[in-house]
């Protein structure tokens, strides 16, 4: 590992990763010293490697909801455009809502997935501050949701499956967005996605927040990457509302049940897509391969159903969300 790579890795290091990073740095230092002095330390290195593997398993198998949120927001986490480039054979981005606006926070276009024409839509965050400002931190405006609906209508007309990638803290909540009809744009998408004939597979690849996520989140299958989160509101916003203190976000993250494991147990999502041991950003190629395999499997199953069966199943899926039984005394 070069000095620049080490520095970059340290910059994006999360707090709970520090013990593992320190151990791995120590192993690298021992290897370098041993090579310089022609000393055989293979046995000691093997023991330290095993300790590092054990520590890695301990850390990433016991993450708290807040720690998973940190992974979901990691600046090096693969984005919608990263996954599109990795899993499709061809990709052609389409722009504009046909109403005078092209929202850079929500991208979409036509592609070939396993040789089959599909329409792909997803939130797009930036890599650095400048890029994030240009993409509005992945928070789509009304024009973004109208662009998404325009592309979904295209898919419906030409019988092309729809793949959506969800990664947003929420829809843009600015005054201008409200003036342009943010609530109406999202509500319209929610209604119209239920009537589409084609298979729809939605995947939360990072942060799925509030109505901003739901605006492209009505589908036959809802998948989540292992370390992604899906929530009605950010833990910080929830803590500020309930306890008047955003610093209690850790408590809110637990109460909100935002993790893929929690949501699978609640039958809100259909499948958890496994990530590399240190998160998707640690091995984007492997993460993309896992995602492609999951989408392929679900798309094949959905393609066996008739349009009417898909619409009915989609409707029942969402009607059953939140159903519960009250225990009597």
From TrEMBL:
Its EC number is 2.1.3.15. Keywords: ATP-binding, Coiled coil, Cytoplasm, Fatty acid biosynthesis, Fatty acid metabolism, Ligase, Lipid biosynthesis, Lipid metabolism, Nucleotide-binding, Transferase. It catalyses: N(6)-carboxybiotinyl-L-lysyl-[protein] + acetyl-CoA = N(6)-biotinyl-L-lysyl-[protein] + malonyl-CoA. Residues 47-301 form the CoA carboxyltransferase C-terminal domain. Pathway: Lipid metabolism; malonyl-CoA biosynthesis; malonyl-CoA from acetyl-CoA: step 1/1. Component of the acetyl coenzyme A carboxylase (ACC) complex. First, biotin carboxylase catalyzes the carboxylation of biotin on its carrier protein (BCCP) and then the CO(2) group is transferred by the carboxyltransferase to acetyl-CoA to form malonyl-CoA. This is Acetyl-coenzyme A carboxylase carboxyl transferase subunit alpha. It comes from Microcystis aeruginosa PCC 9717. The gene is accA.
């Amino acid at each position: 590992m070069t000095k620049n790579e080490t520095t970059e890795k340290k910059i994006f290091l999360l707090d709970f990763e520090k013990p593992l990073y320190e151990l791995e740095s120590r192993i690298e230092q021992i290897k370098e010293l041993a090579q310089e002095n022609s000393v055989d330390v293979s046995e000691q290195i093997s023991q330290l490697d095993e300790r590092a593997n054990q520590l890695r398993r301990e850390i990433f198998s016991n993450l708290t909801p807040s720690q998973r949120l940190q992974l979901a927001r990691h600046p090096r986490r693969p984005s919608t455009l990263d996954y599109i480039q990795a899993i499709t054979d061809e990709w052609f981005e389409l722009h504009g809502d046909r109403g005078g606006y092209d929202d850079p926070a929500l991208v979409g276009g036509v592609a070939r997935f396993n040789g089959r024409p599909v329409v792909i839509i997803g939130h797009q965050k930036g890599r650095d501050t400048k890029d994030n400002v240009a993409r509005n931190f992945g928070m789509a405006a009304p024009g973004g949701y109208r662009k998404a609906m325009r592309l979904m209508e295209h898919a419906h007309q030409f019988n092309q499956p729809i793949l959506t990638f969800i990664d947003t803290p929420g829809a843009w909540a600015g005054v201008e967005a409200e003036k342009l009809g943010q609530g109406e744009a999202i509500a319209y998408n929610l209604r119209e996605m239920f009537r589409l004939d084609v298979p729809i597979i939605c995947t939360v690849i990072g942060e799925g927040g509030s109505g901003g996520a739901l605006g492209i989140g009505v589908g036959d299958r809802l998948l989540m990457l292992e370390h992604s989160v899906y929530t009605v509101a950010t833990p910080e916003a929830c803590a500020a509302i309930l306890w008047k203190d955003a610093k209690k976000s850790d408590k809110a993250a637990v109460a909100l049940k935002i993790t893929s494991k929690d949501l699978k147990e609640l039958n809100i999502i259909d499948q958890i897509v496994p990530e590399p041991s240190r998160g998707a950003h640690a091995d984007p190629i492997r993460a993309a391969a896992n995602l492609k395999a999951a989408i392929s499997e679900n798309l094949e199953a959905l393609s066996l159903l008739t349009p009417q069966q898909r619409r009915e199943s989609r409707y029942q899926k969402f009607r059953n969300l939140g159903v519960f039984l009250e225990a009597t005394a």
